[in-house]
Amino acid sequence: MAAKQPDKSKDYITNKVLVVFSVCLLGVLALMFLNNILANTTHVMAGLRVLSAGKYVGLVIALIGAALIFRERKKNIDVSYKLLRGRTLVIFGIVLFVMFLLLYRYADSAFKACYILLPAFAFYYLVFHSYQPEFVVIATDCGVGAILAYLAGTGAFGSFAYALLAVAVVLAVAQLVLVLRVKGAAGKLALGGKEYAFKFSKNAYLMMQLGAVALAVIVAAGVFAGSTLLALGIAAALFIVTGVYYTVKLV
Fold first, then answer.
1. Taking a C-beta distance cutoff of 8 angstroms, is the pair 17, 126 a contact?
2. pLDDT at 52
3. What are the tens digits of pLDDT across the range 182-203?
4. Structural element, H or E, at residue 190
5. Could you give the C-alpha distances from 66 to 74, 89, 147, in angstroms and in order?
6. In whole angstroms, what is the distance from residue 59 CA to residue 72 CA?
7. 3-state helix, strand, coil in the chain (%, to 5)
8. pTM of whole model > 0.90?
9. Which residues of 50-88 are buried (b: 16+ CB within 10 A; e: fewer)?
């Protein structure tokens, strides 16, 4: 029985990745359909009602998930390899609520952002489960930097550009401190009374430090150069170069 456990875990991860990809793809298609409805003057009110109802659907799903969590804990149900469980529904419901709230208030910008964020999240989820932990950190830096730079260049958040840059700098400094702390402890980190052990490659710490610097540089390029395209280009270039490097290392 013990020999079959790794296969079960591998199948579970594969199924999770497939579900996330499917949900994100269907989400993009549904948003495109909804956006077309809103663009049609004869159906715009119906589209607005859908946007408003979507928030409450998300809340209901989150509440159902919370009830499932209570049931799972009360009956001590093992959900280790279950795709549909309480925590999943809570997260999905909250994300759905926030997404529809933003779509309702910032329709144009929010739709464009979702067209990018949903596929990006699906791809990142694949990276998280397939690549080395240091590349996951670098991919996160690229993604967060790109999001902050994008927001700084939009009309809704453009007035907060310097605040977004400050957030990027704080995150970069926090990552540098954390990386140096883990390096000094030989790959170990103590948080909340628990100790976590990481297996990083020889140059992983340097790469993660460069990723932190890149996070701040990406946002700074968007703010000071006044070009969201330049910032996104830097993020994409760093992601592609490091992605190729770590893909080769996997082979």
1. yes
2. 87
3. 888 877 877 767 777 877 877 8
4. strand 188-191
5. 12, 8, 30
6. 20
7. 80, 5, 15
8. no
9. bbeebbeebeebbeebeebbeebeeeeeeeeeeeebbeb
